[in-house]
Amino acid sequence: MSDNQNQLPNGVNGALEGQPNQGQPVGPLLMNLQYTKDLSFEVPGAPEIFTTLREQPRIDLALDVQARPLQEGANVYEVSLQIRADAQANINGASQTAFIAELVYCGIFTLNVQPDMVEPLLLVECPRLLFPFARNILADVTRDGGFPPVLLSPIDFVALWQSRRGQNSAAGAPVANA
């Protein structure tokens, strides 16, 4: 092992200081790193749920995107894709929770764009880049938990962002944390 155990991956130290990666071209959007910030999988009715479950549970999904700057005046942001899957099964005529899966999957991004382009990049392009990895993690954790994998359909992040803008405009609130 090296003595540099506490250093961040390639280029992140410079990005956090507002400096681009030296020797590498920097475009308008650079993903510095991605990671699982929080992952939870619960089966409250185990082990009985596995013996009484006769059909695939109904799954309710909730998705949110959040973005926050990592340093004042820097162009480096943390974008989090938050997904919750709540599975309900009909057992003996009553609804019972089969499982609850929660995932917060994040990326650190450096943006080199005009201020009016920051919000769409953070709330549309960044989550679009994170989504395939989050989708895979959710499928794996539900399958490994003893259930059929939850396979999320592609998400239209443009429509999600526009919907959020419309809701916040009606409420007179600023859009997201970007």
Quick recap of the structure?
The protein is of the alpha+beta class and 178 residues long.
Q: CA-to-CA gap between the ends?
A: 38 Å
Overall number of domains? 1
CATH architecture call: Roll
CATH topology, by name, is Bacterial Protein-export protein SecB
Largest sheet: 4 strands, antiparallel
Fourth-tier CATH superfamily name = SecB-like
- Helical content class: 25-40%
The share of residues in extended strands comes to 25-35%
- DSSP, total strands: 4
Widest β-sheet, arrangement of strands: 1-4-3-2
The best one-word shape is: elongated
The average pLDDT value, as a whole number, equals 83
Number of helices: 4
Task: Explain what you see.
The protein is α+β, with helices and mostly antiparallel strands and 178 residues long. The chain has one domain: Bacterial Protein-export protein SecB (Roll), CATH 3.10.420.10. It is 31% helix and 34% strand. The chain contains four helices and four strands, in the order αβαβββαα. The protein has helices at 12-16, 48-52, 115-144, 157-171, and strands at residues 29-42, 58-69, 76-91, 94-111. Strands 1-4-3-2 form a four-stranded antiparallel β-sheet. A hairpin with a 2-residue loop joins strand 3 (76-91) and strand 4 (94-111). Helix 3 crosses helix 4 (157-171). The longest helix is centred in the C-terminal third of the chain and has 30 residues, at 115-144. The radius of gyration is 20 Å and the shape is elongated.
